[in-house]
Amino acid sequence: MLNKLMRWRVLFVLICVLALGVVVPMAGAQTSGRLLVWLANGLDPAQVDPNAPGQLVWMNADGSTETVMDLPVPTARVLPCGDTPTSPGGNLFLFYAGLEEGSLYAMRGSEAPQMLDTVRAYVCLGNNTLRFSPDGARLAYIDFDAPTESDEFAEGTLRILDTAALAQATLRDSDVQNTVAFDLNNDRAAFIRFFTNNDGEATEASVNIWDGASVMEVTTLRPESENNCRFTSASIIILPDGRLLSIMGHRCRSGSDTGTYWKFFVIDPATRTTEETLSEAQPGQFSPLARTNNIYLSPDGARAYFTIPDAVTLNTVSMRQVNLGDMSISELLPRSIVMPRDTTRPYEWTDSAFPTQSRDGRWLALTVSTPDGDSYVEIIDFNTASAPPYELSAGDRGATVGMLAFTADNRRLLYVVGGSGGADNSLFAFDLEGGSEFRVSRGRFGDGVVSPDGSQVAIMEWQTVDDPQEPPYLTLALIDVNNSAYTPIFVGADVVEGRVTNARFAYPLVWRP
Questions:
Q1: What DSSP line would sit under 431-494, residue for residue?
Q2: Is residue 234 a contact partner of residue 205, using CB atoms and an 8 Å limit?
Q3: What residues have CB less than 8 Å from 469, skipping those under 6 apart?
Q4: Which of 115, 114, 116, 107 is nearest to 58 (CA)?
Q5: ∠ CA(269), CA(235), CA(197), 5° rounding?
Q6: Which of 192, 420, 422, 436 could pair with 234 in a Cys bridge, judged by C-beta atoms 3.0 to 4.6 Å apart?
Q7: Is the Cα dihedral 322, 387, 375, 429 positive or negative?
Q8: Helix (H), strand (E) counts: the chain
Q9: Which of 97, 104, 163, 91 has its CA nearest to residue 452?
Q10: What is the rounded CA–CA span in Å between residue 441 and residue 428?
Q11: Which among 310, 306, 322 is positioned nearest to 128, based on CA atoms?
C-alpha cells in the first residue's frame, strides 16, 4: 500500500491526467527558464525502443512543449556529455544520442543542436573524457576507440575545438593519436600518448603540449625495463605555474616488484625536466572501462588530490592528498569511492551517483558505497587542507545515492538518498558554508536537474497504482527547494480502471535560463 504522501500525489496526478491529458499545467508556480527534455514512449529510458527513440523538446514551466529535433534512429542513449556538459557561462550545452556509438551534439542557447562528431558513448562518460577551458573558449575530448575488458587502457584521438565557431583545431592525427589523458587551460592543452610493443603493452608514454599552434613533445616516460613493466593508465593536470602533474599506472610481471604501482611525476615543460616524486604499490588494477585515475587541484594550486583503484570493485577508488610544497602525502578517503564506468545499460537505476564538482572548483561531491551495503555522500572542501570531508549517510543498509548536483552559485548540494528503482527515498539539500542539511521532499525520485538560480529541482518520480502487477511509471515534477512545493508538469502514463497504459517518459537533460 502507498503511504499517505504518495497517495495524494498519485490522486492529484490522476485527476490531472483525466482532465488535461499528458501535460499538467502548473498553478501559479514561479520559475525561470525551461527544460531540455528527452520525450519518448516506454516506462523509462532503459526500455526505450531504439527504432522509435522519440524527440528532444523544450518543456516550459507550464508543461507545454516545443519540439527541438527528432532523435536519430537507432538511439537508446540520450545523455548530457560527461560531468561538465555546460560551458563556463552556461551558453553551450553538449549531449550524446545513439547506442554504443552515436553523435555528439552542441546547443548554443536555444538554437538548434549542431552535430559535432560521430563518437563512442565513452566520450561522455565523465571524469575528464571531455572538458571546457576555464574561459569557455575551447573544448577538448578524446575520440576513444572501443575499450574492452581485455585492454589495459582506453585510448583515442584528441580533438580540440574553438567554441565560437565549433570548428576543430588544425592538428595532425599523427600528433594526437593514442591519447589516454589530457588537461586544458586557457592557453594550452597537455596530453599523454601511449606507444606499445608487439604485445600491445604501453612501453613509452609521451607527454605533450599544444600551445594553440603546434604540438611539442616535452618528455618521454618509460616504465622500468628490468622487471617486464608497462604503463596501464595515466592522468595529467596543468599547474598554475605551467608545470605538469601526472599519475601513471605502472604494472610489472617479474622481479621483486610484481603488481600494480602508481607513480607521481612533476614535469617542467620550460626545462623539459621530469621528477618522479612519489610511488607506491596499490591493491587494485586500473580498468579501461572505469575512470579511476583522476587528479583534482585545489583552487590555490597548493594541493593535488588523486584517486587509485582500491580492489573492491571495478570502479571504486581511494583518494589521497599531496602538499605540492613539500610533497607530503596523506590518505583522505580509504576506499569505495564510486567512479564512472562504461556499461551497456546507461540508465541503471540502482547505480550510485558519480562524482560532481562545483563550478568554482572548491567542492567535490562523491558517493561512497561499501561492500557491506552502506552508502554515504562525501563532500570535500578543496580550500581546506586539514578538515575532513562532510559525510552524509544515505540511510539504512542497502540505500543508495541517486543524484548529486551543485547549485550554480556553489552554495548548496542537492542529492537523492534512500531506495532506488521506485523505492522510497528523499531529496535533500546541504548548505555548504553552514554545513547543515535539510530534507526537501520525500518520494520515489529518479534523475533530476537544478534550475539556474538553484531554487528548484526538475526531477522524475516513480508512481504506482494499487495493483502490484501493474508497473510503476514516471512523472516529471518541479520541487521548490526552500518551501518543498511540489508541482507535476508531466505524467508518464494513462491509468484506466487501475491499469497502466500508454507509458511514456520525460527525461530532463538540462535546465536552461
A1: ETTTTEEEEEEEE-EEEEEE-TTSSEEEEEEEE--S-TTSPPEEEEEEEETTT--EEEEEE--E
A2: yes
A3: none
A4: 107
A5: 90
A6: 192
A7: negative
A8: 2, 38
A9: 91
A10: 7
A11: 306
- For the segment 328-337, what is each residue's pLDDT rounded down to a tens digit? 999 999 999 9
Q: What type of residue sits at position 223? A: P
Instruction: Quote the Cα angle for 503-34-72, to 5°.
Output: 55
Length of the chain: 513
Can you list the residues of the chain whose pLDDT is less than 70? 1-31, 255-257, 348-350
Tell me the pLDDT tens digit for each residue of 282-324.
888 899 999 999 999 999 999 999 999 999 999 999 999 999 9
Grid coordinates given for 202 = 604501453
Q: What pLDDT, on the 0 to 100 scale, is given for residue 346?
A: 75
The structural domains of the chain, with segments of one domain joined by +, span: 1-72+398-507
Grid cell of 368 as nine digits: 561512497
What does the alpha-carbon distance between residue 102 and residue 75 come to, in Å, rounded to a whole number? 8
Task: Please tell me the predicted confidence (pLDDT) of residue 366.
Answer: 97
Could you tell me the pTM of the whole model? 0.91
Per-residue model confidence as pLDDT tens digits over 225-245:
777 899 999 999 999 999 999
CA angle 407, 413, 417 (to 5 degrees): 135
The answer, yes or no, to whether the previous bond of 74 is cis (omega within 30 of 0) is yes
In the block, cell 612501453 appears at: 203
Only one residue has cell 589521497, namely 320
All three cell numbers of 35: 527544460
Are the CB atoms for 122 and 96 separated by under 8 Å? no
Grid cell digits, residue 352: 550510485
User: CA–CA separation, 202 vs 232, rounded Å?
Assistant: 7
